[in-house]
Amino acid sequence: MTATSRLPSGFYRVLAFLALVAAVVAIFALIEPRYLSMRNLTAVTRHMAANGLAALGLTFVVVVRKYDLSFPGIASFAAMTIGFLIAGGYSLGAAIAAGLGVGIAVGLVNGFAVAYGRLPDIVTTIATGSIVGGMAFLYTGGRTIFQNFMTSGLIDLNDIRFLGLNASFYFLIAIYGVAYLVLHHSRFGASFRAAGENPVSAHLSGIPVRLYTMGAFAVCAATAVLAVVLILAESGTADTNEGANFLMPAYAAVFLGAALLGGASIPATLAGTALITILLDGFSLLGVPYYYSDGVVSLILLAGVVLFDERLRREAAFLMTFLGFGRKIGETHP
Amino acid sequence: MTEISSPMRPQMSFAGFRAIGRWWLLLALIASLLAFAAGRPQMLDSGNIVTILRSASIMAIMVLGLTWVIAAGKIDVSFMQIAALANMTTAGLLAQGSGWALAALCGIAIGAVVGLVNGVLVGRMRLSPLITTIATGGVCASAAAAIGAGTSIRIDDTGLLGDFLAARLGPVPLIALFVAVLYAVAWWMQERLTFGHYIYAAEQNEEALVDVGVPVHRLLVLVYLISGVCASVAGVLLAASLSSGQPMIGSSYFIDGLTAVFLGGMMIRIGRPNVIGTATAVLLLAVLVSGGALLGWPDYQREIIKGALLLAGVAMAVRMGRALDGFAKGGRS
């Protein structure tokens, strides 16, 4: 995975991506005219908000070349924590803050184990995800929480609209904007990405690689909690497996985006999320049964990583240089 | 591997300490069995032992191939969904009136195909093992649910396979003996054939292995293929054992399978997954589940315990593995 900031190739990739989105939308609109309705646009943007938030944190983890499989468990645990506190009469702000607190705490444990304990990321996060997923049952023994949800103002978060779109979508765009500036246009972001590209030389350049890695896991946990808050607001109940549906779309968004735009980055994840949400929403509008959705997302993800395989990309880049488009073959991570 | 790398390893001074380090998982198994038996004497009833052995046998078949995938330094998170797909394929074909032999073969064939796809994508195309198997696992899960249109499929006649699962030789179910033989063969393959040596070598340094002319790609394809076949055989056995096809069966085996392999990696060849370790860990998990049920622990407590075990297993495997070959790898990575 190389950085995306080379403008010319990135520009063509963005064009190609927009063309792909337009083609997908056109196909859906031809089959089902309702696809272009305002109502559907609202639905797409709302679904995008939750998936996009979950994928955003994962992007940070992937940028430092790690994986996190615990965020669905963290989201479930945080959802039950928030639900339990709201049911107990605490204010919405306090409940969400507590949810963020427990989520970030687990994220820090993950990060500490992986960065400082040097444990393998995949298995460690599977284990912590399983632990916190089990802890989601602690509050009620597995029963759904819904008390006080109406009066707490949580549901209202789902209903605030502005220019026909949900507030959550604007929140998503704003947080992506901040993440973009931090990761791609700040000194901190540059050293953060360097920590992922080559941890050894980053370490020798004085970058606190381990601290950044730990931070990435904490960010991933935090955005997963924010995403599940949106889901809670939408459904009006807190369930013990509230976060389970985040895993596939988040991974697909990050890696499909990386495949489309040539490397894991904030815009790439946003693009991946948009494409996947458009597709999933279209399929559900066409009445495709729910159990196909994971399969569809998986196939898209697989197609994305196969078609944009690094070797294929390198060969394509070679062909481009050969044909005189002038771009040097990018040095890739070994 | 032990013979090959021992000159590089720092010699441990206490042979007894080393033996405990290598066999402590077995001690943990015996200790937990005795502890549960002290609390609930029904634990050691022959009926309960048979139940434990039977569920452990199916689990052991499912994760045999996974052990080698992880030993080769890769990961497979699609194994439980392959089992679910094989399970539903078998149940679906039986519901349509085909015989057990055909249904079981089709289930296993599908598992082999998915394993082969995993192997080609990871071994040949060098894609990320995690992303690849997340995706193929997702496809399998969807396909499994689609076969039953989202619900389970009942099987009226469990056929010969049902008889095989029910059969016992004295106090031991036949399937457990079968698995014991299977694991003995696997141990022999892992220890005595170049196949096994190359697996551990691939984990250490894949490029070096390519340089000396070992067909690593083919090895990885083979290892993933074995994992797919093992998982699907377990899925077919589950169809007979549960007298139904259950599309959601995968998620319950996910943590257990990985926990078994990584806990097993802390035994005998410390820091390296191996088949005897996996078998012991599978038994330990089955004892925990059974004992926990007898003591009335709720499901989620067992999940938390399993997660904690997995974490402890990985932490210790990594620590001990690093302490042992830290010098060979030149200290810090």
TrEMBL record, chain A:
The chain crosses the membrane at residues 12-31, 43-63, 94-116, 122-141, 162-183, 211-233, 254-278, 290-308. InterPro entries: ABC_transp_permease (IPR001851). The keyword Transmembrane applies. The keyword Transmembrane helix applies. Its main location: membrane. It is found in: Cell membrane. The complex is composed of two ATP-binding proteins (LsrA), two transmembrane proteins (LsrC and LsrD) and a solute-binding protein (LsrB). Part of the ABC transporter complex LsrABCD involved in autoinducer 2 (AI-2) import. Probably responsible for the translocation of the substrate across the membrane. This is Autoinducer 2 import system permease protein LsrC.
